[in-house]
């Protein structure tokens, strides 16, 4: 098992691009982050609800690696936890390198299952002009684009998570499936 740490937790009860940080958040099995606008059994993404309202919510929890903020800072973009709309910010976990179905044990009790990559949207440029180009990068090895703005997950076991809680990774059985957009 690989391990990392949670550096921040965020939620927002209304639709907004960024989410304020909190001392803790509670993850509810099958629903998402308690008190967050994206919690629910079916799709809560504003745009997708208009044409796919009954599909399962594979985007209950958004996780971003804090190392991305370091990288963006070197390019002149000041970004901090919660500002890109994530619920959980981590350090020391290669979130983008995880296969689909990886389990993340967060703190003492919570468990989430990684469902795929967050698809970056144009609102990122509304937050910081030009930032979207940093989130979508051509990867010649994969002969395609890499999306760098985190992963999405569903909650498998309820629990409260806080900054400084441990993140433990459990990989699914082989063969592994690469992350795709959800």
TrEMBL record:
Alphabetical list of SUPFAM superfamilies matching this protein: PK beta-barrel domain-like
Domain MOSC as annotated: residue spans: 19-170
One Pfam entry name: MOSC
InterPro entries: MoCF_Sase_C, MOSC_domain, Pyrv_Knase-like_insert_dom_sf
Gene Ontology molecular function: catalytic activity; molybdenum ion binding; pyridoxal phosphate binding
Name of the protein in question: MOSC domain-containing protein
